[in-house]
Each structure stands twice: as C-alpha cells, then as structure tokens.
Design goal:
binds zinc ion, alpha/beta, six-stranded mixed beta sheet, 402 residues
Length: 402
C-alpha cells in the first residue's frame, strides 16, 4: 500500500430531503467521510550514484563511489469517500432500501427465464404468449418507474402471474401428452393449439420406430406438423391421418432411418428456400396419393440433401428422394393398396453422390410387405420393392401384405 498518509480527511453529512418513513417529521440524513488518498500511478526504479571523498595520510584525496537503486513514484491524490446509511434527523430511524425492489427484480428474472423456457420447449400457446407479454411489460414498468411501493407490488403480482401461468401450461401440456388419445404415440410430443380447430404437432428428438399420429386430440383435429416437427429423430415411418393438411419447414429433416411415408393428396407442403420437409433424410421413399406433383408444392419439395441458393437453384450436390405417384390408399389412408404403373409415375430420384437410390417398401401396421403383385389383390409377387419400376406401363400393381 501507499506509504503516503491520507490528507484532508473530513466528515460530512447532508439532508437527502427524503421524509422519514417512521416519524413523518424529520428527513433522512446521509453522513460519511471523505479523504484524499495518494495513488501511485507508476513506480520507476532508478540508479543513483553516491560517493564520499576520502583523505589519505599522505594528504591526497580520492573518491569512493557506489550506486544505489531508488524507487521513484509518480502519482497524485484522489478524493475518496464512504457514505453511511441515512438516518432520520428527528427520530434516528435508519433508512433501509426497500427489499421489495430486489424481490421484484428477482421475480422478473425468474419470469423471464420461464417465458424463454416455455418458448424454447415449444409449449407456448397464444394464451401464455399474451400473459407473458403483459407480465413482462408490467414487470419492466414497475422496475423502471419510481420505486414506489405500490408499483413494486404490482410488478411482483405480474411476475407471479407469469410464473404460475408458465407452470400451469407446462403441467397441462405434460398431462395432455401423457393422457388420452396420445398414449399410443409414446412420450415426448408437443402440441400447440392454434385457434379452436387446428393443432400442430412436433416432438422431442428421442423418438424411434413407427409413429402413428391420431386424427384428433381432445376433440380438435391435428392439422399440421410443425416446423422441425419430426426433425432429428430415429423414426422408421410415420402414419399421417387424413385430417392433417400441412407439413411445415424441415418437418422430417435429418431422419436417416425414415424409410417410407405416405402423403395424402390434400397435404400442403410449406417450406422455405432451404428447408424442404425431407432435407437430409436420405433413405425415405415417398408414396404420394396425388397422381402428379400438386402445383403448389415447391419443385424441390423432395430434395434430400444440398440446399437452395438465394436464386432458388439447387446447389451442394443435392439429391432427391424416390416417389411413387398416384397410389391408392386404404380408406383411412394408413397403407398402400395398389397403383397403376404409368410413364413417369415412379420417380427414382437421385442420391447426393449422383447414384440412383433404392426404392423402399411401403409400410402397413402389423403386416410385412411381401412385394408387388400384378393384376390382382394377393396375386403372385412379381416385383420386390426395389424393382417395381420395371413393371410395364399400364399394369396394375397390388401391395401384398402378409
Ligand atoms: Zn424520523
């Protein structure tokens, strides 16, 4: 520490002009101490020469000299002060900061974290969005305005509403996932309700095997698979109900084990410039009910790898997944019955390395695909899944389920 002694030390006090909460007569007085303290800014070690003259007995003189190291400081004085808690100048009541302020800020932070969590966990509904926005505005208003006690309490009330709402929504969502018609769908689903008659479904990343999406949940139709809804899972197939009419961006992206899927003809595919529904799902074969590509499906809707550039051109050594167009489905639309082989109704696709991908078998719950029979139901299997494209144009092919 500095070897310099503080100077100009003095005590001070001043009237804050703030009325005493207790006696309502005096004002709070802040008192403190200030002093000037020397702060060394630089320390420099210099060498100084010292010497003495020595007189010899023969009358001559000579000098003995030596060097010493000296620390030199250059710096200055700076004023410091400490202030003590304000006291009332009448009754001596000590002013304390309002603890509610800190509680309020704490609540606000908790509420904010919960709101963010609700958002990222995909469990938010319009109700909680409105509630969260109102609560956060309320909290901020309470914090940035005067520290009046009423406003602080209002902030806390808003924050508590938000916390309770977030918890309720999470619990309710968990209950919805666990119960009812979703019990057969394994755990991990998230359902977002939009309006009174549509739902978007999505999931966590731990799903595998066969997934069946029910047509309704609690009396409301499940209408869409949300953005990234089933991205990054290990599912092998997913059965989509006829009520479902929308696949959003990347809905089945990055699913390496997804081998087949049926798309009904009333499905609308919505995807951005780089996010087709099967992006990087490099093993899927698509069985489409529609006989040709609906005009409102993007040209790159079955792109599996690579991406579109800003000009809408496909780049990156991309691939396209195989499609069989115009399949006849069961009444529920959950499995393939047959299709008429025609020119162009089998698109064999392209791998990202330029090779032709293998066409996979369709899927039917509880059955094994035996192959394709020609001309009649349960006829002799003529083509296996991979070679069905060899069938002559005009031949009717029936899936044999065993
Ligand atoms: Zn007082």
């Amino acid at each position: 520490m500095s070897k310099y002694v503080p100077k100009n030390e003095e005590k001070f006090s001043y009237d804050t002009g703030r009325m005493c909460r207790k006696c309502k007569k005096g004002n709070y007085i802040t008192s403190g101490r200030s002093w000037d303290e020397y702060v060394p800014e630089t320390k420099e070690t210099v060498t100084e020469k010292r010497g003495v003259d020595v007189k010899h007995s023969d009358g001559t003189t000579s000098q003995i000299s030596w060097n010493v190291s000296v620390d030199k400081y250059s710096g200055g004085y700076t004023t410091r002060q400490t202030k003590s808690i304000s006291k009332c100048n009448k009754c001596g009541h000590k002013f304390k900061p309002n603890a509610a302020i800190f509680i309020s800020i704490g609540f606000f932070l908790i509420a904010l974290i919960l709101a963010v969590l609700s958002w990222t966990l995909d469990i938010i509904t319009p109700f909680v969005i409105v509630l969260a926005v109102i609560s956060i505005i309320g909290c901020i208003a309470g914090i940035i305005t005067k520290w009046g006690e009423v406003r602080v309490k209002l902030t806390n009330i808003f924050a508590v509403i938000l916390i309770i709402a977030s918890i309720l929504i999470s619990v309710d969502n968990g209950a919805r996932i666990a119960g009812g018609s979703l019990s057969s769908m394994r755990t991990g689903f998230r359902i977002n309700q939009f309006g009174s008659n549509s739902m978007v479904i999505s999931t966590n990343r731990n799903l595998s095997g066969v997934i069946v999406i029910p047509s309704q949940h609690r009396g409301t139709n499940i209408t869409a698979i949300g953005r990234n809804g089933f991205a990054d899972t290990s599912i092998s197939t997913i059965i989509i109900p006829r009520t479902l009419s929308l696949l959003m961006e990347n809905s089945f992206a990055r699913n390496p084990y997804l081998t087949s899927i049926i798309l009904h003809e009333n499905i609308y595919i919505s995807h951005g410039i780089v996010s087709p529904p099967f992006h990087s799902s490099n093993n899927v074969t698509i069985f489409a009910e529609s006989s040709t590509k609906p005009i409102y499906w993007n040209n790159y809707w079955n792109a599996s790898n690579g991406a579109l550039n800003e000009a809408g051109q496909f780049v990156g050594g991309g691939g396209f997944r195989p499609i069989i167009w115009g399949v006849n489905l069961s009444e529920a639309g959950d499995f393939v019955v047959s299709f008429l082989r025609s020119e162009g109704n089998i698109e064999r696709g392209m791998q990202y390395d330029g090779s032709v991908p293998i066409i996979n078998a369709p899927y039917r719950m509880g059955y094994i695909f035996g192959g394709w029979a020609v001309g009649r139901v349960n006829g002799t299997v003529v083509y296996n899944a991979a070679h069905v494209y060899r069938a002559a144009y005009g031949s009717m092919l029936y899936a044999v389920w065993v």
